[in-house]
Amino acid sequence: MLPPQDAVTATRPHELAGVEVIALPVLPGDDGGAPLLGPGSAEVGELLGIDLLALLDDGSDGAKAGAVTAMPVPLGAPDNADLRQVLLVGLGSAGPDDFRRAAAALARATHDRAVVATTIPAVEPGEGLEPFVVGMTLGSFGFPWRPTPPEHVPAPKAG
To answer: Which of 35, 34, 100 has its CA nearest to residue 65?
Structure first.
């Protein structure tokens, strides 16, 4: 089982063809208020015609580092028929440990997917990219102790 291939691009996740999962960061609101969505969220919400923040209104702590809220997209997006899921990934206070936790949770949530696009490292590009890549790599590992192939495989491309 190979770790995912990470790629950095200036192209926004909703503009990438062939992406199966778009993962967007969720940050805590000011003074404990409603959570905030990170870069790319407005565009993805507009593209799909949904209020992504409404997904977090169930009382859960969606901004906690590593929290994952999933929204299926069974019919794909207008410009990307491959899109199957949007994930809102909690980034906590956006420190290095939070980036690792968020990336590891994203890696576990996207097993068996081919291409994942995210803007999570864009929240703090100078500090967040390296721990994010480490978290994706570590979260992708599985340790099968049997001679059969693994039950799940990590996404081969993430970025």
So the answer is: 100
For residues 119, 122, 128, 133, the Cα torsion angle rounded to the nearest 10 degrees is 40
- Rounded to whole angstroms, the Cα distance separating 47 from 44 reads 5
Whole-number Å distance between alpha carbons of 127 and 141: 23
CA distance 149 to 143: 11
* Separation of alpha carbons 155 and 5, rounded Å: 8
Q: What is the DSSP letter of 90?
A: E
pTM of structure? 0.85
Find where tokens 């390296």 sit: 130
Contact indicator for 13, 35 with CB cutoff of 8 Å: no
H helix runs in the chain, sequence order: 41-48, 96-109, 125-140
Closest to 22 measured CA to CA, from 45, 5, 4:
45
Tens of pLDDT, residue by residue over 54-110, are: 988 655 688 999 999 999 999 989 888 999 999 999 999 999 999 999 999 999 999
Radius of gyration of the chain (CA): 15
